[in-house]
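go over this record:
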Amino acid sequence: MALEHNQSMDYYYEENEINGTHDYSQYEVVCVKEEVRKFAKVFLPAFYTIAFIIGLAGNSIVVAIYAYYKKQRTKTDVYILNLAVADLLLLFTLPFWAVNAVHGWVLGKIMCKVTSALYTVNFVSGMQFLACISIDRYWAVTKAPSHSGVGKPCRLICFCVWMFAILLCIPQLVFYTVNHNARCIPIFPYHLQTSLKASIQMLEICIGFVIPFLIMGVCYFITARTLIKMPNIKKSGPLKVLFTVVIVFIVTQLPYNIVKFCQAIDIIYSLITDCEMSKRMDVAIQITESIALFHSCLNPVLYVFMGSSFKNYIMKVAKKYGSWRRRQRQNAEIPLDSEVLTEPTSTFSI
């Protein structure tokens, strides 16, 4: 989380790991980041509340439709369903981080580790499922279509994505704890502070952005080129979808990973020596990470444009709900002692 990243930049060490011969001359100035924490207390709860409400509504609809209404699923449907579950689980951690930004961590060390791990698992798995969707769309357009439906390979891929994301959250389970200021932050062993912190940062950048971006870029580029060459098909719709998916991914994820990369380089080489610059870096990581999180709210909007089937299922659900509401209204309006039949209302339509 952004707040935890910038707080950990204060380099808090456990007392029993510092010996009496340590050279303290390298820490000439202590950078007090009270302004950063004040900004986080206002910005993060407000943004997380908006993201939670929007994302919960959109992704819940996706899960409900794919889980209960759409029985015949393709591989893309399975990936989208898993992606929506990952987005929901990620969004469910946001209230905890909002409270942490304002009041500190009040749920204890175990919940600190678990919540941090859940955040990482679902953020990373969401990026991987986006890559899986791009691969499946590439195969659907460029190769012979398969009508076998969802099989063991698709379920195995989903299982591997979840397992890989769980493995990547091990550092959160090991190093996250509640410090003396009641904040849920990562605390690394003193002798491994720089190497571990930088390695985890770079690994998260590669797994959570670089690899999915390369896969999506290559697959969607080939898919778009294939669509352009296809005769007698309507190309504008699918091409707009591909372009929108890629642009949204770049706009939401690239700024956060650029700042995160700069932060990792600073951890290794200590390039930022000015306190004001360090504060600006901390604010930048908060803002860009929040934008990256908002991708989980935009995913349901992208699903609607990925094909007509999803829109058709939304219309079916809306029509069922409209019919149910009409029946409820008619039953409420008919007096118990009345023998007059009411006229049926018009069919619900969108």
User: Anything to note?
Assistant: The radius of gyration is 25 Å. The beta strands are 176-178, 184-186. Residues 99 and 197 are 25 Å apart (CA to CA).
